[in-house]
């Protein structure tokens, strides 16, 4: 009997001794998983660099260099104004958004070239009234351009009372005033712009004003207001990588322009 028990005990001992050997297969560690993930990331980066090298401009953040854009087509008003908003015909110091200036006043003319809405103004008869203002984050040392398309809405050919538009950055005049001439082409618009650079990073209010205070023929439209970093400027969002240099293209996008080592992309 004892011999049988000894045989059983011996067999169990051998079996138990063999079990750890069966569990020795290596397990994936956190370090191994990290290395795998790192390799996947490298593959992704290599793919991105191949795309860039093949001529794809690689817009990492499509609006990285575009601080603000107001199309005047927004459902919720995206700007502030010293003019009073109305829905019917305009009087001095009032504005509305429309696709056709004749809805603002029977004596106005003007349409957006793309069929979108624009802001229609009956010029204020008091000075320093902001037509449209936006507050935007501005980075120190970066050159920016504020611009808007504008047109005289008056059907009067008189040059004496035409609107004169200018940008104001943080309350200071920026750029040269733009006098809007009478134009018989309904979809013809003029560019009003100014360039500026700030010494410190901050939220800055940028406004468009009509310098004319005439109560006659002083009517204008605004379309597509933009504040963007100028071409050639490098913001923090336009990150260099993979041997490529990225900078603003002046239209609000980051673009790849050259290899960091100076060779062409």
UniProtKB/TrEMBL annotation:
Keywords carried by this UniProt record: Signal
Signal peptide residues on this chain, from the entry's feature table: 1-25
Record-given protein name: CBM-cenC domain-containing protein
Species per Swiss-Prot/TrEMBL record: Polyangium jinanense
């Amino acid at each position: 009997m004892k011999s049988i028990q000894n045989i059983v005990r011996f067999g169990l001992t051998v079996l138990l001794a063999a079990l750890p050997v069966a569990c020795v297969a290596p397990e994936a560690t956190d370090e191994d998983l990290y290395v795998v993930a790192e390799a996947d990331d490298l593959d992704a980066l290599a793919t991105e660099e191949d795309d860039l090298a093949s001529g794809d401009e690689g817009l990492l953040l499509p609006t990285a260099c575009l601080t603000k854009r107001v199309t005047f087509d927004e459902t919720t008003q995206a700007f502030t104004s010293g003019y009073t908003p109305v829905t019917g015909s305009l009087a001095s110091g009032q504005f509305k958004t429309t696709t056709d200036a004749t809805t603002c006043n029977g004596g106005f003319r003007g349409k957006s070239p793309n069929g979108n809405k624009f802001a229609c103004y009956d010029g204020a008869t008091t000075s320093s009234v902001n037509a449209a203002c936006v507050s935007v984050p501005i980075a120190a040392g970066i050159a920016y351009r504020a611009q808007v398309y504008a047109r005289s809405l008056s059907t009067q050919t008189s040059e004496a009372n035409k609107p004169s538009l200018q940008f104001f950055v943080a309350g200071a005049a920026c750029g040269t005033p733009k006098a809007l001439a009478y134009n018989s082409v309904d979809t013809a618009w003029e560019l009003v712009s100014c360039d500026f650079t700030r010494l410190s990073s901050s939220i800055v209010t940028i406004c468009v004003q009509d310098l004319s205070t005439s109560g006659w023929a002083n009517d204008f439209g605004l379309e597509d207001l933009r504040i963007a970093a100028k071409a050639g400027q490098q913001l923090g969002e336009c990150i260099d990588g993979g041997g490529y240099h990225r900078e603003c293209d002046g239209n609000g996008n980051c673009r790849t322009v050259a290899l960091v080592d100076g060779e062409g992309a």
